[in-house]
User: What shape does this take?
Amino acid sequence: MMTAEFNVITHAIQQAVAPVFLLAGIGGILNVLTGRLARIIDRSRSLHQRLEHATDERAPVIREELQTLTRRGRVVHRAIGFSTGSALLVCVVIATLFINAVMGWHSGTPVAVLFILAMAFLIASLTGFLREIQLATRVMLNGP
Assistant: This one.
């Protein structure tokens, strides 16, 4: 009896571990996104200080760059939200897989739906990341 319970728990842990690697990848993406947001915020603060002392000729250029930084910040902020949502959904998938295995439930459909939602959120996050990179590259190549 104890061996059967031990085998069920071992199997449940094995099933739940696979999505943990996905969770680690999402954590890496979140790290990159928060780093980009921090740089955007730092640059914005610097430009706000410069704007206070800017000449009438330079002020419009600084304001335009601040607008671009604001757009980039919003895009990264949404991407972080989608990544966090994806990570939370993966956590629910892991918990559901574990509960299913231990309790003997067979709820494959909810697990599949949660996983598909997690992937949709991750796709939205990565799309936002790509968009932010495009905005940053545009500024670099074409100027503000």
